[in-house]
Every structure is written in C-alpha cells, then in structure tokens.
Design a protein that fits this description.
With 404 residues, the protein is α/β, with parallel strands linked by helices. It is built from 11 helices and 17 strands. It folds into 3 domains: 54 residues, Vcp-like ATPase, Chain A, domain 2 (Roll), CATH 3.10.330; 238 residues, Vaccinia Virus protein VP39 (Rossmann fold); 71 residues, no CATH class. A hairpin with a 2-residue loop joins strand 3 and strand 4. Helix 3 packs across helix 4 and helix 10 runs antiparallel to helix 11. The longest helix is centred in the middle third of the chain and has 14 residues. The termini are far apart. The structure holds S-adenosylmethionine. One of its GO terms (molecular function) is tRNA (adenine(58)-N1)-methyltransferase activity.
Amino acid sequence: MLDLTSHVLPVCFYGVFVDGKKPRLSNPLQEGEKLDFSNGFILHDDIIGARPGQTFKTNKGYQYRIEYPDLDTYISKVRRKVTPVYGSYANSIVSLFDIHVAPPTSVEDSHEPLEILDAGTGHGSVTLHLARAIQAANPPLPDLELQAPGSSRKSASDGFLERSSSVDEERAQVWHDWRQSRRAVVHSVEISPVYSKHAEHKVVAGFRRGLYSPHIDFYIANVDDWIDGQLGQRKLESFLNYVFLDMPSSHRYLRKVVDAMKENALIAVFVPSITQICDCVQEINANSLPLRMEKTLELGEGISNGRIWNVRLASKRARDPIEESSMIHRRLGDEDKALQEETDTQSEISSTTTPQEEDSSLPLLEAGPEEGGTSKEPVMICRPRVGERLIGGGFVALWRRTAS
Ligand SMILES: C[S@@+](CC[C@H](N)C(=O)[O-])C[C@H]1O[C@@H](n2cnc3c(N)ncnc32)[C@H](O)[C@@H]1O
C-alpha cells in the first residue's frame, strides 16, 4: 500500500496522476479495477503498493506520475454534489480564526473541549480544513485495528449514537471512549442528508483514508434545531469557541447561534456578495446582538490575504459650516473646491461599532442632506478600505462574541 499512516477509517484512497498537464484525481484504488485515460489504461493492481512520485505507463505506453492529492487539488477534483469552498478560500477563512491547539500531555487536563460549529457542511471543504487545524489537540487514536463504526451518526433530535449491529461491542466501547476524550471537535451540520452523507463518507473519509474523520461529528439537521438540541442537552450552557456559517441567508441564524457561543468566541460568515455582510451587520444592530465586528475580507484570485472592507453602521454628525459649503459647491458643480474641502474635513461619520476604523482618506460622497444633530437612522458604510472596486470572489466577515 502507498505510504499512508494507518487510521481507523480506511475507506478509500485516491491518487493524483500528472502527465505534465492538469493533475487528475483517480477513483479510489481497488484490486481488479483500472484507470482509463484517453491514451490507454493503468491497472489499479499495478499502483497499489507504489510510492508517491513513481511513474507508470498506460498499456499504450503513455507515462504518468502518481502523487498524493494535496488538499486543495482533492477538494476541487473529488466528485461533488454541491459547490465547495475552494482550498485557498478555506485556508484564509480558517486562518482568520487563528486556532492554536496543543497536543495532549500525560498530565490529566480538565480543559473544556474546543468546539467548532461548521454550517452547512456542503461539500465538506471547510470541514476538512477546520479538522486539520484542530486534530493535533486530540489523543492518539486507539490502536486496535479498529474499524470505526461507520454508521455512527447523531441527529439533532435524539443526539445518541446509532451503531451498526455488526460492530463488535468492545471495539465500539473503545471507540466511544476515545471520542469522549477528544479535546477538540468540529460539529458539521447540514440540512440535506444527501450532501451530508456525501461529505462524510466520500469527501472526508476519502481524503488520506479518513485522516481527519475522527475529529468531526456530522449531523443532518437544520442548524437552528441543532443549536436548540445542543443547548437542551447542555442545560443552556454556551459551548462554541468558533462558528462558521456558509448557508443561504446566514444572517437569519445569527440570533440563534450567538446564544451557543462562549464569550470571546469567533464567528465567521462566508457569502458571495458584500450586501449579505450588510444584512448581517443590520441583523446584529437591529437585535443588539453581542457581536463585535473584527474585520471583513474580500477573498478572490490574486488577492493574497484578502482585501479589507469597511462594513458597519454609522450615524452622521451635524455638518459644520465648512462641510455645508462643501455640499453647496458640489451641488453647484464646483467639484475641485468641494474635493479639496472634503480632504480637509475629518471623520464626518461616527461609527456605532468600531469608531477607530473609519478611513478618513476617503471622500464621503454619499453624505445625506440632514440638518443639525445626530441622525437616529444609521447609514450603512460599505466599501473597500483602499477605495477600489473589485469583481469576483466571496466575502468573509468575522465577529467576536462580547459579554451580553
Ligand atoms: C455553499 S454550501 C456550503 C459549502 C461548504 N461550506 C464547503 O466548504 O464545502 C451551503 C450548504 O448549506 C446547507 N444549508 C442550507 N440551509 C441550511 C440550514 N438551515 N441548516 C444547515 N445547513 C443548511 C445547504 O444544503 C448547502 O449544502
């Protein structure tokens, strides 16, 4: 077998074949199967037992090299049922959480486990990336040549493990005990049974023979119901250290999710358009949710660390005479003079969330015609921090749970 560490969930193994062009992901390798190419085929039997980097010829003499699939290639090439979060974005999202775990020591520690909610599971891309970030916190897997109870599954309603009757009870107990001893876990919640099962049994279990599977619990549930179920079981104690929301209308779930977040926990929301981040900001403001915006990033090809956006609600202060004259000049079309005065004017807008973040270098052309005092109606500030427009990619916003 290829040089993979042995794990308890040896479901399937994929290889990547490179012929100098695009890498291609194989099907899981199985005795008696063959890999078809446009220029011949290679028998799986020939590959099983090979080392990464080894080359093979098709029956027609075309040469391919076999490699391990890296996570990015794997995510984008493995069969999908739903569009994944591509590897580079998933990496950026997970790095925003700045998770640092320490391996367990021989000294008994009584720390509460680190718990992450990942909703929705979808393709399982972010799930895998999160599991990679936390797996080092967990004790070594039990050494029993144990086949993990593949049918183990929790549901929001019953919350207990259903076990396949074929699984030996003793091994199931050892597996159960190991799961109970985990110091970090990703709870991956998905409303669609089809997507959840595909992510769990194909995508996650198929990556390096299930390397990250033991660190993830999959649930088929609406995330609202899942939170209710968990809070019920845990007697309303908040338990989440990190939350990642990647679902349609994510803003609608903020109210519920925030109840389950510990103080200082982080929540990231990933959405295709900046207006959906605005929806979240408005939802937080309208319900006075204890969440403080940390940052909003635009993710896209060629934006290495994400472009920072300024998204927040603000109220406008009374305009001083200079600003008033600036508006008049603008209305009269005297743009040069207006621009000069705008540059001289400092911080017209006072933030209701992060006052220190206002970027005073940007002219406030969206200024409204209010007269004196502070407007009660907040206005939405939403623009790239560098004053440019970019097209494509997604947006991720990060909030921290504050004291209620
Ligand atoms: C864009 S996909 C998520 C992609 C995923 N984060 C990944 O890394 O591959 C959105 C998923 O949210 C699921 N979903 C939608 N509403 C949901 C809800 N209320 N609770 C749980 N999952 C939900 C959808 O079925 C879909 O699979």
